[in-house]
Amino acid sequence: MAISEALEKPRKMPRTKARPRIRKTRKSKVKLDIHPASSALGAEILGIDLRERQSPGTIAAMRDALNEHSLLLFRDQDISPDQHVAFSRRFGKLEHHVLAEYLLPDHPEIYVLSNIRKKGKTIGRAGVGEYWHSDLQYLAKPSLGSIMHAIEVPEVGGDTMFANQVAAYDALSDGMKELLGGLRLVNHFAKARHYSAQVGYARPFSDEELKKTPPVVHPVVRTHPETGRKALYVSPGFALYFEGMTEAESRPILEFIYKHTINPRFIYRHQWRPHDLVFWDNRSLMHYAVQDYDHAKDRRHMQRTTISGDKPF
Ligand code: OGA
Ligand code: MN
pTM for the complete prediction? Predict the structure, then answer.
């Protein structure tokens, strides 16, 4: 084929995309008091007391709001672990985190992130998450969303940043969408350790932890199973290389993605207050825990539930 001909007729990239399995739900009739938190993503919901059981209509409206805003903030929610678990269960099955030593005794659905020390040990996992990632992206079935309850937070510092990966996908050129739409990525939990050496968590993962988390392959562009919208699904925390490519071949494309996905326009930075409860969608967002506080002096204690999700497509 002549070069000019090839240039005129660009060939379509072959696609390995599975058939969409989108479950669009009917919109709830319940109206919540919703206030967008930034132009990138997120919304605060007022007038809700999560110590009480919410009606099915309210839960459905929260699900709609999560689909629209990707992150829901409820302030002043002084809830017990039981109430946290009960609320979380309304949105799906809950995970027990691989790092079992940080699960709350009697509540294995609650994963503790804490730098508070007792008997020479932190009572939760400390100093982690300082890299862009989506929770449980290293599992074959990653998480739908995470619900984090802030119990103690530093006066300043210890924010969490969130980046909207639907917006990041939408901002790509058609050519790049086409290219990335045909790629699949190998993800591995063990990579994240290199980002987690700060405080209490420099130990390597145990053989058992690694056995539970072998490398997994996910599409680079995933379709949100409820909204049908496409999002980038690549994080430096777990990404190794594209399936069928070498690391050297993958690296420049990965570097481009890492840079593109965290454009300030896509980001909301959450400054925690005690008893904030934040519910974020792991299918459409990445997040980053900023470790800019003094772990020896500033106490930070968070409890998180993690809702099980579907296999990305
Ligand atoms: C997490 C995480 C965020 C934070 O729990 O998944 O990344 O701010 N932590 O502690
Ligand atoms: Mn996380």
Answer: 0.91
